[in-house]
Design brief:
about 400 residues; alpha/beta; binds flavin-adenine dinucleotide; globular; FAD/NAD(P)-binding domain; six-stranded mixed β-sheet; 10 helices
């Protein structure tokens, strides 16, 4: 049996694992990093099944800072990630995000807006009349206003993932196609991983970047993580609407969201309380849209009473059932086990800040962003960090 040694083994080659690998090698060109991914086609990874949206509209300072950091990174991403002169194009489109607000969500939206503005974010409050004037499509009964984040937008999650992956490999990361089926521990430290072919790889640091499989991986080391894989569906449809420009993505107080893709093409999704916890169910059902999303959409956009569903897909959120926020750092009861998990529905946009922060923690560098609020210690100490009811989607 082979026995290979690394300084860091990252389990999971989605956008988190690739970003962590990139930052590790960027900061330390000598560190030996293995990035292990069981499915390089990414057919079930959350990253490639996500909507690719990024927003600055959070209520926690650190979540806002992560988005701001992501925007800074995106400004020079193509140049930074160039490999052999080839620059990735992530198709970042800053059409803005418009969060509709009802009476019940007014207070927390006002608090969030005040904090965002204090931190220099370009977010503004629009009255229903102002929204109506700019977007005559909408019927805003029951809405007391909206917050428009002009820096928010969407991009290709696959392109971002592949850019980090290619660059991490170009900088010297060893990419290994394999499934981790076991974790080795000695006392209260992790020492290595077991692959499905029985090979053992050793490292003093193992990173859990397994997305919806995070709790499954942690269980291999007898660590119980409050992270559940929850099925979410996205439906794509064509409508008679013909907006002249791309509309801001629209977020309803109920959690329903609508992303305009150009011409009459839109996609929509909504987290429902009874969405199944599963690692195997990736079936998309048009009835999910017809029964749960369509009536609500028509109430706000009457023109959508006629539309043609053109497709859809299902993916998995890695829902942090403890407090909905990221879990970042070393598990206090198991030395060498670093977590980048629990991002629920907003992890894609945080990959830049998380990649950097995890690399800084592992290398013992002072972090550029202090994200210690998301330490896993809070789970053991029962100190949840809640965002707000409305914006964790
Ligand atoms: C429908 C949907 C829409 C979303 N929309 C957005 C959005 O608009 N904006 C946003 O910010 N976020 C969004 N998200 C959330 C976002 O996609 C995730 O938070 C983020 O992509 C998580 O990245 P990850 O690398 O941790 O996980 P993943 O991309 O799932 O990567 C984990 C990888 O680990 C691999 N792996 C797992 N176990 C093992 C093992 N034992 N051995 C080897 N490899 C293993 C898997 O194969 C997988 O490729 C959405 C998610 C979904 C499902």
């Amino acid at each position: 049996m082979n026995n290979r040694h690394y300084d860091v083994i990252i389990v999971g080659g989605g956008v988190m694992g690739c970003a962590i690998a990139y930052y590790l090698r960027k900061f330390d060109s000598q560190i030996k990093v293995a990035l292990i991914e069981k499915d390089p086609t990414y057919s079930r990874a959350s990253t490639t099944l996500s909507d690719g949206n990024t927003r600055i509209q959070f209520n926690i300072r650190e979540n806002i800072a992560m988005s701001q950091y992501g925007l800074d990174v995106l400004a020079t991403f193509a140049q930074e990630m160039a490999v052999d002169g080839e620059m990735p194009d992530v198709a970042f489109r800053q059409q803005g995000n418009l969060f509709l607000i009802d009476e019940a969500s007014r207070e927390e939206s006002e608090q969030g807006l005040a904090l965002q503005q204090t931190l220099g974010c370009q977010v503004e409050w629009l009255t229903p009349a102002e929204i109506q004037q700019i977007y005559p499509l909408y019927n805003l009964a029951g809405c007391v206003g909206g917050t428009l984040g002009r820096q928010d937008g969407t991009m290709s999650p696959l392109a971002v993932l592949l850019a980090y992956k290619q660059k991490a490999i170009a900088l010297g990361t060893q990419f290994i196609q394999a499934e981790v089926v076991g974790l080795y521990r000695e006392g209260n430290r992790l020492t290595g991983v077991q692959l499905a072919n029985s090979e053992r790889l050793d490292a003093p640091v193992i990173v859990n970047a397994a997305g919806p499989w995070a709790a499954h991986l942690a269980e291999m080391a007898q660590v119980i993580l409050p992270v559940q894989p929850v099925k979410r569906q996205v439906t794509v449809f064509d409508t008679p609407a013909r907006p002249q420009t791309i509309l801001p993505a629209l977020f309803f107080p109920s959690g329903l969201y609508l992303i305009h893709e150009g011409d009459g093409h839109f996609m929509a999704g909504k987290s429902l309380p009874d969405d199944p916890v599963t690692l195997d169910d990736f079936t998309w059902e048009r009835t999910h849209f017809e029964e749960h999303l369509w009536p609500e959409l028509v109430a706000t956009i009457p023109l959508f009473d006629r539309l043609k569903i053109t497709g859809g897909w299902a993916g998995l959120y890695e829902v942090n059932s403890f407090d909905g926020n990221a879990i970042l750092g070393e598990w206090p009861e198991l030395g060498g086990f670093f977590l980048a998990n629990g991002f629920s529905g907003h992890g894609f946009q945080q990959c830049h800040a998380v990649g950097r922060f995890l690399a800084e923690l592992i290398l013992g560098r002072p972090p550029v962003l202090d994200l210690s609020i998301f330490s896993p210690r809070r789970i053991l100490e029962n100190q949840p960090v809640f965002e707000s009811q409305r914006k964790i989607i």
